[in-house]
């Protein structure tokens, strides 16, 4: 029997262009999977943006495979919840969506919230926002503090919660008896490093070839990109033979280029520290990481659930980074990396030098991280989430004796 309408409220934005709609490519790919897994109709409600979002393409909304509703600015999400909705997936990271908890409860429609940011992460992001002055940052911090009781109450009232990453699980799992921890990432089983690639990496370590470091991601202060040049300086000062390839763009890039030049590294030159534009994930960054790197270096100072960690592990790369609340438990559970005190680039450089001297430890962590990533590949994590939605929806339908939701 077909399931009722699944309505997904998202935070990603879309923009109109005539009869077409600009949508993020990764979003469309993810929605195709929801349509495949859900045995029934799917509707997506997403905010309407004034301009096309990055990495988007114009698409015919009638050919998407799901019903798309664009939400005008300042529209309460609940105003677009149709009476025939039989299951709702919302985002508790959006304060505007928290009201769905009471609305869905009143209508008898099961609701699952997804969440990934903790209050601490929200406050740190607000504090580091370069686009806001001190007064605006203070106001933002106060606003986040005021929203947290609403968020916790909404999570408690939902029929289930899907928590992306260890920090969100630690903060919110106790609020709801149907809490699901998942580790969001883009690594499919077919993308994982192969035995031949791991053997080639081990052979390089056996002959003590120069250590190949890699860093990828947005080059922004909140991602720790301002610490790349100090790390390079610490590694150079130690006289270590290595290479570092940096893939990314962002506001820190001009200052990073200047800092690397001051250290004697010309951007794009043949030196051992090289800057690159971002690569497409599946057919660019993944093969490069699998075949041309030995260690993923993270400078992430936030505790949000960066997918870069587990994606690097899936490419056969252990991770070295700061002891934020996501990477520390990930390393403890996987054995796929190391952490040093937050923001301590000298300690991170010392750890990298120690790994350069102990290639066996580096390879053990590479194998352990790969095994962990394989147990948490994209397909498994996504299936766990859709299975929870199905179970909650089916239980609600059974309680109603097979009838549709109230108002349908």
From TrEMBL:
GO terms for molecular function: glycosyltransferase activity. This is Glycosyl transferases group 1. The lineage of its organism: Bacteria, Pseudomonadati, Pseudomonadota, Alphaproteobacteria, Rhodobacterales. Keywords: Glycosyltransferase, Transferase. Pfam families: Glyco_trans_1_4. The keyword Glycosyltransferase applies. The keyword Oxidoreductase does not apply.
